[in-house]
Amino acid sequence: MTTRPSGSTTGPPGRQVASRRHKRVQVARACDECRLRRRKCDNRIPCSNCTTADRICSNSGAPKASTLTQASEEIERLKQKVQQLEAKLEQRSHETNDLPTPTGSSPSPPLAFSPRNSEICDSGNLKKYWGGIQLRPARSSNDTWLGPSSLHSFIQRLSVYLSLNLQQTHSPNNLLPISASDNKLLDRPEGPDIDPVRRLVSTGKLSSGVYLSPIQEEYFINFFWHTYHTSLFPILDETQFKKHYQSLWVSGDKERKPSALVDVVIAMCMQHAISALPSDAQGFLVEGNDASVAGRWHFWRGQTLLTYELESPSLSTLQCHVLCAVYLCGGSFHNMLDNSIGQAVRTAYALGLHLDPSPSMPEQDREMRRRLWWAVYLMDSKAGMKLGRPFVLRDSHAMPSLPSDSLEAARMSGSTFAPIGNNSTWLSYNLHQTELYIRARAAYTSFYDQELHLRNGQTIWDDRHALESSADVLFPHIQKLQEWSNAVPESLKLKRQNNGMPLSTDGTRLLFEQFAPLWLQRQRVLLEHSYHHLSVNLYRPLISFSSKPSPGSPAEEIAMRCASHAIMLSKITQQVLAETSILDGWHEAFHCQWNAAMTLIGFVMVYPDALLATEARNAIDLAVDVFDNFGAKFSVAANAAKIMRDLCAKVDFLAKHNQSQRDPLNGVQTISMDDSMSIPQGLSFEASSSSYTNALAPDLSLFDMAVDVDFWNNLDALWPEADNLFQFQSEI
């Protein structure tokens, strides 16, 4: 039997046998490009057509997520891939930062916009500033940067929160506090003054202005020893100063010889003493302007004289810089204050005050140099924490010993104040205040220098974990501040009614010692005032409007501590002003109260249901009383009272609105704390009461108003001869 080969077909004899045809390769689904162009597509990945045409082929080989399970698996896979890529980038960044720096050659400066330069600037080994704002204060033409610890940064966050919750459009420059920059308070004096410095040096006269007679100067100089000398810095020797002052008077002359130190002291005391008087009793010394700039003619004459001492400074030069900073702080000239402190720091280094005095130096001079150094340290700390800017004075090196407050040191100081008991003297206040600022500055540095691993543009208020870790950094310093309060001698503590605890937040009223001298009572009040004020500033960053900390967490506890200190400061200030004259005209007390009041406004917004909320709201009313008291004497406080009343209306409105939202019978949608930062721009806000709507109706800018309380003056209005002096300086 003959077998036919496989694949052949039968047919008639003599006909060739045809081979069987192979089946054509089928493609399950053409790629998108081939289907669009109706071309044959193979199974390659990518297909041949797309490879030849250099097109992106949809045949990527990735499985199609056709079900929910497959989609979830694909999302998880992509997340893992992103994490792997981020880890590789971070590893490469560390490797770049760890590269050794070449030595032995002088590297050429990098190009301005070089990517390599950007990597160096963004090195992971360098700390980055976070938070802070750029603002244009009080109709200024230039922006100013203020850091996250500043009240202005807090006000900006508060303003954003209010705008989102109230859904109002606030127009700027309406209902702003009266500002010197628009000549409503300080009309710019007229009249040319050519070459004022040469005329001043040769004749002792600057120009027509408000200067004091010898009797008036004597009054304000005597005022200095019982106010700033005892309650701020003991950096002048009273006996030596009075001898110097007497030497300036020439027999038969009506005007004394020029002295920068005397002029600055007189300016400070005019600002303080006149600010303690009602507006209608301030007389011609304010020239019809605000008391905050009383003494400006003496101040600028002293500043003019200081220009000749810059190259050859003395202890008197440093004393002038420190006291000028105090005057500028009282007038809310914050940038000028910062510059004056910078000059003080550089002058202190030039004089070698950062080194402990030589044992061969007389003990009286050694103590004066120490007090001067620590006065510069205190002012640098105060400005840095208030403005949120880096400290000018470096504390990474050893510093001189703290000044002594012993009976012998008080005897050598040049002043004759009686001891206050418990081996304490009038110098003890300055010593314990300096120690308080040392501890507060250490806490501030630890908090703001910590590495938070924030992304560019982020702050601790954008990350709840960063907020919590920041609270952990602060907690050890709370105990250190408590240790400081325990170490303060009883003779410097304010007694409390009902056996209350001094230097605490227990809320008890003060008990004033009836026959204690006014300077000692002021020391006691200001020491406790400083303690609460520094605590408010230190703890305030934990009040967050966006990422609210967990209930009972350390961050929330510190926020509550912040409110407790602000409440106590308000109670102390209101009682002292109502019952005594201790703080009359004390501008720093006004600024501390403004700081506490704005903090309480933010606290009540964030924690409306907290146990402290009602007490905080009552403390805001006390703050309004304080502003009314100060406002009868200087205008910026009167405008602060107006601003605070407007904010109280907003606080009460939101409290009533939130309460109605918690009512199950009310159908209004709730705007929660955590969602307030992401409310759509077009969301309308429905007021539940027409009366509240009318109270909120005026167009005003909370941020501009609140900031303008601190930035309400300008340089040109204060110094009418500024242009001439700058021209003279450029010539020499």
UniProtKB/TrEMBL annotation:
- Zn(2)-C6 fungal-type domain sequence ranges: 30-59
The UniProt GO MF terms for this protein read: DNA-binding transcription factor activity, RNA polymerase II-specific; RNA polymerase II cis-regulatory region sequence-specific DNA binding; zinc ion binding
Report any one BP term from Gene Ontology. Answer: DNA-templated transcription
Compositional bias ranges of the Low complexity kind: 1-15
Pfam families attached to this UniProt entry: Fungal_trans, Zn_clus
- This protein's UniProt keywords: DNA-binding, Metal-binding, Nucleus, Transcription, Transcription regulation
Q: Which InterPro entries match?
A: Fungal_SecMet_Regulators (IPR051127), XnlR_reg_dom (IPR007219), Zn2-C6_fun-type_DNA-bd_sf (IPR036864), Zn2Cys6_DnaBD (IPR001138)
SUPFAM superfamilies in the record: Zn2/Cys6 DNA-binding domain (SSF57701)
| GO CC annotations on file | nucleus
- Which Gene3D superfamilies does the annotation name? Zn(2)-C6 fungal-type DNA-binding domain
Q: Mark out the compositionally biased spans (Basic and acidic residues).
A: 87-97
Superkingdom of the organism of origin = Eukaryota
| Region spans: Disordered | 1-23, 86-112
This chain belongs to the protein called Zn(2)-C6 fungal-type domain-containing protein
